[in-house]
Amino acid sequence: MRYIQRIRQAIEDPIQLGFWTFTIAVAVQFLHQLEHLLQIVQKEVWHWDTYPGLLGAIFDFEWVHFLYNSALFLSVLAVLVTFLKNPGMWRRSRVGLFALVFAVVFQAYHLFEHSFRIVQYLGGTPKPLGLVGQIVPVLELHFWINSVVIGALVVAYYRFSPSPYGRSEPDGAGGAQASRPADGSVGA
Amino acid sequence: MSLSILGLAIPARAVLAPALHLGHEQQPGLVGTSLILGYFLVSLLLLGLALRVRKAGEYQIDGAAPPAERRNPKGL
Questions:
Q1: What is the pTM of this model?
Q2: Which of A14, A18, A88, A102 satisfies CB 3.0 to 4.6 Å to B59 for a cystine?
Q3: ipTM, interface predicted TM-score of the complex
Q4: Substitution target from B5, B16, B21 for chain A, most A beta carbons within 10 A
């Protein structure tokens, strides 16, 4: 019962909703990027014939890749929407906003690549390369795409400091500090 | 929650597998498919909530007074 109430509060409070959406997106993308890093190590350092990462047997399927990248795009878009609808809820940072918008746009491109791959896959290509993957090695291409996405997300996360806890501390970087409503009310 | 997603994933995969050409490669595992499907649905839900939740005007930036105080600085 207490947990349900806490979840309801988190859903109705933009600061908590933004914090959890952002934190989950960054954490999941960080783990995803570790898989891509391990694939590069398997190829370049260990010289394996195949590069399944750690969890390739579970996740390395075209539809799973497509669904994951759609989910990440929706998550990051949700973070941006929450912030734009509630300006002042986090520290003010132009760099953070630029990094977040860049992450949304770049992830949209990444999703386009995977959509292209799905079309190729449905057309009968078992291991589709996507659009740019026809020119650049596909393993390295997606490693770098994911590196850019996680890099932009980490910059935005650091600059915004979206934690709902300890918000009364002064912001040493000179940015704005959001204050919670005095009456503790929640918006619709 | 995860059980219900798993419960949905089993028949969904059986129906969708031929249409989505899942047989081209090794069959995706139920665990991986369920986890990613769950993450996708959660993301969709979070975007819906983000579009709905709003507390405009209640957050102060740079220590500025909230709109009500600015309109009535002496509390009259």
A1: 0.76
A2: A88
A3: 0.81
A4: B21
